[in-house]
Amino acid sequence: MSLTTLDSYAVSLVSGGKLTTPFTYKTNEDDYEYTSKYDLLSNSFAFYNDSERDYSIVPFNNMLRIYCINTRQCVKTIKFNNNKTLEKELLSKDSVFLGSHIIGLNIITSDNLKFIEVVLKNLKIIYIPLDKRIDYETELKVIKLDLENEEQINKDSLVLTQSLNDNFFLAEDVNNFFIFTKENNDDTSAKLILNKTVEKDTLISYSWSINKSNILLITKSGSEEENMNKKNSKHKSKKNSSNNNNNSVKKINATVFITNQLDLTIPTLEFNEVDITTSDSISKNAKIITQSAISNDLSKIALGFASGVIQLLTVQTSSNDIIAQFLKWHCDSILALSFNSNSTQLFSGGWEKVFVYWDITQGNIKKNFIPRLNGVLVSIMEPSFKENYIAVLLQHVDNSTNMDLEWLLLNKSDFKSKLSVNGPLLSFENEYLVKNFKKENIRPKSAIKQKTHLSAGSNISGYNDITIRSFTNSVSSPEILYFPHCNGINSYDLNKNESLKYIQLTKSVDMGKIRMEHENIIEPEILKIENFQLQYEQKTFEILVTVEALRSQQTGVFNNSNNKQDNEISYTLKFWRKQTISASNINNDANEWVLQTKIISPHGVEDNQLLGDIKILDIHISGNESDDLKKRHIFTTDSHGGIKKWAIIEVPENINECWKFGLINYKPANNNLQLENNFVIESLDKSLILQSLSDRLYFLDSINLNQTLKFLQLDSNIQTMSLNKVNGNIVIMTKIGILTYDSIKNEIVNGFDLYDELQKSINGIGKEKISKNGKNKLELYNMKRLLDINPITGDIVLAVNDLSGTTSKLFFFDKDLNEIIFEKEHDSWIACLRWNKQNNFNFIDINSRIGIISSNNNTTASNSNKTTIIQEDQLLVPLNNISTNSNENVEIITNGKSEKSDIDMIMDTDNTNDSKNKLNNHMFLPLFNSVNSNTMADTVFDTVLKMLQ
Predict the structure, then answer these.
(1) What are the start and end residues of each WD repeat (predicted)?
(2) I want to staple 644 with a disulfide (CB 3.0 to 4.6 A). Which of 444, 490, 556, 666 is the partner?
């Protein structure tokens, strides 16, 4: 094998990543809580100014990004894999899989140089020079924080949770909450001195002032005996009831400490037996504290409740008493509370997705609010370095399969967005990763929506899946990726590493105040998207096809509670159109998607069901490039073996009006079938439609879809299949391997046994992860998202996730499946893989990092890792060269008569122990990410200003 062949592809991570916050993940079985207790913005998002410009440092799980607020552009990116120290501390095996260790960012100055102080959960601090270029070999200063009072702390479970300033740290273990101060030893270590310990069972909430000078502790009021009885009663009851919530109390103690004190035994302010009963006391949520805040001048304390009420406590300096006021607007849990720097305004937000600001300077408190935002408000902060900004952190709780965070920086004068930052928003097939591995199960709990609705597109068969709902690339601009997400599409620019826009294809409720709407609204979910391009009247149009699922909102007699998950879901097929102008105008109104045709229940309804449609499994876009619009076909398949063929049937004289898409051919569903996979592709000459049903591949007449010409019997269920446009062969992935079938010669050309590798993907999660019914495992019915073909060379790429560890492998086959060109190992599981409609592949892993698989003739990926040189004896032996003892039969049906021809079997299951058919797990090199420049770059606007000056 020549090196030229081996070097034909390069694999690297180039973009993506997700926002991180200092969450400490829960260890119990509850998936939701009323509040995270942590101030998510004050520590993990740092602000500074320089040369009359304002900057913000935003942490991702794979990098730090520095944004110039004035120009709204990213001016510097510090990728962790571009430096050996950051790679070691932040991209270790555990941190990649469980999320970043960063819990605090600060800007410090030393020897007239600015450094980013990065505080980690594992008691380490890294110092990164801010204005200096760093490369992979640059040594960064790392300080280890030692514990002075080790005997009082459970070191095995201790993690840092907050860093208020350079000398004040908060930490937790299983049972206690700790306050530490730091004492420097030398340049390589420092000592943490324990100043205060609070039992978690008595701690309700804690917060600190914007200037980080004061910390507020809210604890339960009562004797130790009473608290112990409450604790025991809580452990006895496992019901998820608000009455048993840890924060449900009638009286509290409020204690305030100054953070620069070395001795925290004497509080600055202390109030005992504070009555927190609100006027909404009838509600059980009126006694559950969800958030707290304290002003800089210590004159005001705010408490937020699950009922939506805010209790404002004003401290009388003369008598040291408090006056209570109740602020009412929210109708659901208060998750974010914060005062401004001069204590004249209070900011609040919660489950309604509405930002409310209260003017508390006047006797008559005034309130205002801005329209509904994209997500639930989990944190609000006014940056201390400048008062004209407000930072807001949103969480997209509608997506229960991933921790989606979005950071907004608002201009305080008009509350317009100055910056909006988030990574690619992904919707996984179900909650398997979140619950079992990533532990991202801290989600704010709604007081109204006590029962969360099962995702309409989630896998309900008892199996689990780690793939995402497949993304697609813009046809005109392949660097733009479209990710289906809840009821919209997240458009992401791969080159800029920025989310461009959240496209709401299905409108949601714009307001968040009306209780009935807030409680009962169920929004559709976009399950599948595909797109293609058309030329018409010398104009280029992009067509988007979406499948939406909506769970029934009916109650009463129409509510089938016995089988609610399987039926009562309605599906909608929609066709969208936009005129393509250019990638630079992606956000212009001229490039907005316009709905053309909406088809309700496109495959009909389930038999004997009042509600519930037949489930749509797949969308396939015909490869016909004809100018005749009606010859560009769209296929949809369902869970009962049905196929429907759609096309444009009418284009109005004014092309700006709606185009009509309609059904032109179909194969009816068979209600006796119940399938997880039903794929269709077209033959190269468009004369045949190939359909996979279980372990058979059917050849259908393209004119009459109900006429079966022949079928191919395989030895296991077909997971996916695709047409290789280079040689016209069909690439088929089964549960035990991959093969290529020549439809002209009517024979299997070649195949590879991947049975052992695929078994790791199914059964590698270990016995401890298997549920009692034995169904908590992966089922590879979404392998379509992990296999694709290069339409230029015909090379085949397959991703296989190794669940016995946390890695995945990329297999590169040649077009005829004669040999494996080479293999790559990736450090986490791959969730989706797609050809980008131009010249390379894009893939995304479970940590939202986007990679690129490109030809080395391209310059897209810089400094990719060296390719593993694989010897011939290490390759999987092509199975058509191995003598097998079994043959499979193909039955050809012609004019009612059947003919049989012998076709080689993909593999002999009795010979799976043959060492030649097994992969060598030790022959892969780890994947190194591409190294991009992380120097400070002036924007064009900055350069022009300097020239003018």
Answers:
(1) 327-368
(2) 666
Report the distance separating Cα 912 and Cα 917, nearest Å. 7
Alpha-carbon distances of 632 from 529, 530, 647, 829, 839, rounded to whole Å: 17, 13, 6, 35, 23
CA distance 303 to 353: 19
pLDDT of residue 581: 56
Q: Which of 14, 136, 260, 205 is nearest to 861 (CA)?
A: 14
Looking at residue 260, its amino acid is N
Residue 182 Ramachandran class (φ > 0 left, ψ -120 to 50 alpha, else beta): beta
Q: Are strands 796-802 and 63-68 parallel, antiparallel or unpaired?
A: unpaired
Here the tokens at position 473 are 């690339």
Query: What CA–CA distance (Å, rounded) separates 440 from 433?
Result: 9
Q: Phi and psi dihedrals of 32, rounded to 5?
A: -135, 150
* 89: phi then psi, degrees, rounded to nearest 5: -85, -30
Distance CA 853, CA 654 (A): 42
Please give the C-alpha separations between residue 757 and each of 878, 888, 919, in angstroms, as whole numbers: 16, 24, 8
User: DSSP 3-state assignment of 438?
Assistant: helix
Q: What is the pLDDT of residues 679-722, one digit of tens each?
A: 999 988 888 999 999 889 999 998 889 899 989 998 888 889 99
List, in sequence order, the alpha helices (H) in 138-249: 224-236
Classify residue 916 as exposed, middle or buried by CB count within 10 Å of its CB (0-12, 13-18, 19+): exposed
Domains with residue ranges and CATH for the chain: 19-200 (no CATH), 245-422 (2.130.10.10), 472-917 (2.130.10.10)
In sequence order, the 6+-apart residues with CB closer than 8 A to the CB of 37 are: 205, 206
CA distances in angstroms from 265 to 70, 177, 180, 270, listed in the order given = 44, 15, 13, 12
In angstroms, the CA 10 to CA 214 distance is 52
State the CB neighbour count (10 A cutoff) for residue 610: 13
> pLDDT tens, 183-242?
877 777 888 888 888 888 888 888 888 888 888 998 888 654 455 555 555 444 444 443
DSSP codes joined into one string, 532-561: EEEEETTEEEEEEEEEEEEE----GGG---
